[in-house]
Amino acid sequence: MCSVKEAYKQCEVVIKHHSKTFYKAFSLLPKDERNAVWAVYSFCRRVDDIVDEGRNPEAELVLFKAEFDQFLKGEYDAENPSWLALDDVFGRYEMDARAFHDLIKGQEMDLTINRYETLDDLLDYSYHVASTVGLMLLPILAPGKTDVLKDGGISLGLAMQLTNILRDISEDLDRDRIYLPQELMRKHGVTECMLRAGVVDDSFISLWEEIASEAESLYAEAFKTMKEYPLSSRIPVRGAAYLYREILPTIRSKKHKVFGQKHYVDEETKKEIVVGLSSL
């Protein structure tokens, strides 16, 4: 059996490989909080991989839910570094099990729903797959401040998920998923055929920008309460938000060409944002 220290290390490898943006931002945390974030991310990644890469995702997700229920009772596979690290996290912090259950529910939605009619429908989905992560992390990043920071944390998760959706339109199409609300597509005159053809015209740009405007408003809401975070976590949280928000102007600078490619914030801009955090 690996040690808790080794378990955290393996969780770190997971986030370092799959999310360089989050890894860069949360590496600024003190050691204990940083390790706890790695463990929570590993949990989230496991659920995501079941849905996106599992051979039989429905059955695998049912099994994972049962494993998590057993984990909450103190029964888990101690040979699994993800469960071992997460158990240490639950022992150190007042974790919210409901947020974990809600995340799993969001991933279940991806197994049965591949189109969303309204923006509200999309925001409900985004809460389940993204805002829940913020709620999981709040007891780690701001102990005792969960009530004050909850709404801002939810807004940040929604903003980040909308950003993901606007960046990953092409990748999602490959999985026959269209997260752009059908109601807004009709409003702007964008059809599924146009998306599949990779058409970037005024209609597509106006649709993209309407959703981007919603994301930017949600980022602004999230920033209103960030001063309530302890300084040790305020900088990493703000950094993650800035780094993610920067994806939107990056896509604009590429003339909204999101088809057949995935845009990332360049390393120089990332460095400028991280360095600029020290003056906040």
TrEMBL record:
CDD domains: Trans_IPPS_HH (cd00683). Pathway: Carotenoid biosynthesis. GO terms for molecular function: geranylgeranyl diphosphate synthase activity; squalene synthase [NAD(P)H] activity. Coiled coil: none annotated. InterPro entries: Isoprenoid_synthase_dom_sf, Squ/phyt_synthse, Squalene/phytoene_synthase_CS, Trans_IPPS_bact-type, Trans_IPPS_HH. The lineage of its organism: Bacteria, Bacillati, Bacillota, Bacilli, Bacillales. It holds the Pfam family SQS_PSY. Keywords: Carotenoid biosynthesis, Transferase. It comes from [Bacillus] enclensis. GO terms for biological process: carotenoid biosynthetic process. This is Phytoene synthase.
